[in-house]
Amino acid sequence: MPPRLRICPKCLHASPPKNRIPPPFSYSRYATTASAIAPASSLEQMATRSIRPLTRYPYPPTQPPSHRPPEFRKSQLHRQYTSLLRSTPLMLIFQHNNLKATEWMGIRREMGAALRKLDEANNINNDNTGLADGIKIQIIQTGIFAAALRVVEFFHPEELQPRAAAAAATAAAHDPTLRHALSRAAHAAVVDKKRSHALAPLLSGPLAVVTFPTVSPSHLKTALSILAPAAPSFPAPTRRANPGYHDVTVQAGLQKLLLLGARVEGKVFDGEGTRWVGGIEGGLEGLRAQVLGVLRGVGAGVTGALEGVGRSLYFAVEGRRGMLEDEVKEKEKEKEKEGESTGKEGGGGGGGDPPAAS
Known about the structure:
Blueprint: H1 24-37, H2 43-48, H3 73-87, E1 90-96, H4 101-121, E2 136-140, H5 142-154, H6 162-171, H7 184-190, E3 207-212, H8 217-227, H9 248-254, E4 257-264, E5 267-269, H10 271-278, H11 283-349
Antiparallel strand pairs: 1-3, 1-4, 2-3, 4-5
Helix pairs in contact: 3-5, 4-8, 4-9, 5-7, 6-7
């Protein structure tokens, strides 16, 4: 058994250190005494004193309050997608399946080279108006993109009715004038429209979009020939013309891309409709020529139909008038014949034996 240690009872109560911090009540006592001694502020000082208002959103004036905190990455992506949808008239939507970084690099390289070659062939690059540099392919966050699409399609602050405007002002009680894409008014306008957009069924899974700064069927055809070739209208470049396109990395990446549809001027097109837009000969000028030809054909058809009705009516009236004239002439001839026959009969009766002399 180990030996017991004998400890002095007085050693258990150690003396407090000299630099010990006094208890909190001493601070409150000292503060109370100091405040009692300090003179009170005058009315002029209280009137001229600048008091900073307490706001729920402590943001600078250049950053308006929003429904979600703007410093989050999701908020910035929402704002970016909203601006992209409002400024892009033509957008292709692809579904990708675990593409590697090298595969994305190869696809972007080949698409950019093909578009620049098209600009050079059209003599557009010399005027600094080429579209090749403005056509981009990027990966998107599907859920945030769907939310931004609902805001763009269904939230129109300038078209709000008085009752809807009052509801939006109630939703944005901190500032009724806020109508941006991240405001509470925008959230209240689209919160009940989850599946009401035509593009909503396509927004599922990992997606990538190809954005065009303007609607150009020729550039769309070139992009589809690279990303989603389909012979004979959208043939892939040959190995002799473009050997880099047939690289193993590029082909492996293209096999993981699937064309879902497109959004053209706010309208939704499926794969066939997208290829129809890309197959318009002559681009927008060709489309205008086709529309003009159709309108001219419709006008010529209407004019011909109206002229045909008038012409047939004229011929019917003229035919009927000719028939009536023929009938009148026949009646006149019959009357003349009857008159001649009557005259002959009267002349024959008066030419008998003369009376006997007396």
